[in-house]
Amino acid sequence: MKLHLSALLLACAPACFARSAIPAPASSPATVHATITMRDPAALEVSYEIPPSCTALTFRDDGVRPNAGRNDVGLRSDWSAADDCTGLDGRQLRRKNASCSTLRLRVPATKRNKDRTYPWAYPVEKGLYVHTSSYALTDACGAVDWKFVVPGGTVVVDGVTTAESGARTAAAGGGDAMPTVLIQQAFRPGATSRVHASSNFARQTLAYLDATLDSIERELRKELPGLPFSIPFIVASPSDPHNYWGDVANRTVMRLSFPPAPGREQEELLHTFVAHEMAHLTQPQDWNDSWKEDEATVGEGGAEFLRAVTAARLGWLDHDGFKGELEKAVNGCVLAANGKSWKALPRRGWGRMPYDCGLAFYAIGLSSDVPQSSLLRLRDYNRKGKQGERTDFARELECGAAQDCQPRWLPRLAGTETLENVLQDYARQPGSLLRVTSEWSPAMVKPMAFRHIEQLMRADCNGAVSMYQEAAAARIAPGPKCGVLRADMVVVRAEALPLFEDAGAVKASVKACQEKGKTVLGLQDGSSATLACGQSVSLPAQLFGVDPERAQALLK
User: Fold this and answer.
1) pTM score, two decimals?
2) Nearest residue to 451 via CA among 337, 363, 546, 294
3) Which of 445, 488, 465 lies closest to 324, judged by CA?
4) How many whole angstroms separate alpha carbon 429 and alpha carbon 487?
5) Alpha carbon of residue 424 to chain centroid
């Protein structure tokens, strides 16, 4: 948007300016013109054309995460200035010379992920997935007009596919938090597939992905009849073994990253995380809920609940498997709370907590004894949110359409009582979904194993924990300074027992810590590591089991 005077004002300049009582039109507001160009999938060229009065641009996202470790790599650590006009410190761009009108960056392609951050230059087949939130600016220098360019290629802006370039003006809105896909491949009208997948995937993987997407879509429409949702543009890329990642920005672009090797493990993974991302499509883009402070828990918990329900209804989880998913979530939430109340958990919106606690909250709320079924209550709640209505998470789930009803348990769970105490009280009620138990179900073996490694790591690493949770192993991650543990050690056994298969392994290791002051961990390469430990390494006093009949009622 260029500053200009109207033709009428120019035509009558002498007379108009002589009549001082008539004010001159105000100048158009300043605008920053941002252009993201991909000439090669190895990197992006990013430029900001700035008004003359602008000396610095500040990013809205400072790149700092509340759950980041001391060795966390900053979001923009590998970005660089592309000319002598531009200074960059990771949080701000500075104009180095008064004659400069454009600031330029080079942003390399990267597979790095950061919690609650959409990808900023993520490699996809012949291109990059770019979310503008990492490039968005404060309004100190004006609103931002966005342009995206791939010479001779294809641009997908917020789900809309065009040839070579796309744009979103500040006046249109939404450009500061928008998914785009830049593809070095000529645009062919009418020939765009809904899945833009890597050529590194086998044909059978792509066929199974398509079938999985179709099955989940059909099932979600059965579970939530009449609830409108659309399938977005999907990009699928290979990940490292045992790792996966998914997100669905603006409900218009879905990113799926998973190991490329075909087989049963890949199929089970697709069932799990594709169902979670598809479930997000049934939710509102913007929540207007009384639980707004816990939006991450409401959003991720709802997607986790529908993931588990959909997997069970499609036969991907049997009755025990569905029950186990609920038990893992409830107990994972209680263990993470560590004797605190929900309100006393400052980082409750980060890491696994919104997923585990959110799933637990949905299951407890929707298991209430009211006439309307659990899935229809969930449908109506999501529908109201999509329509922009003000909603109350606790009341919508526990009461649904019942008029003379007040929610009882969700307000308490989200209050100032300890989570464990509220759940104990809930478990004592007739017809409760939960019961107190000292027994471990098979579903709890892995969560308890990871919890045990966390306790041992804190003892060995001065209170720090950094590890990757793999399918049947705990891989020590870089970062903490430890006594015995080292990065890339892969723990698979404890006291000679398979740690992720046998509940006795954790119990034997805890006993060794408390009686001998040390325990022996077995590593994947056949070696072992002996760690000093003590009374701080323990078993939980109690766990929560799930009533199988009440669990099955959640599927209706």
Assistant:
1) 0.86
2) 337
3) 445
4) 46
5) 30
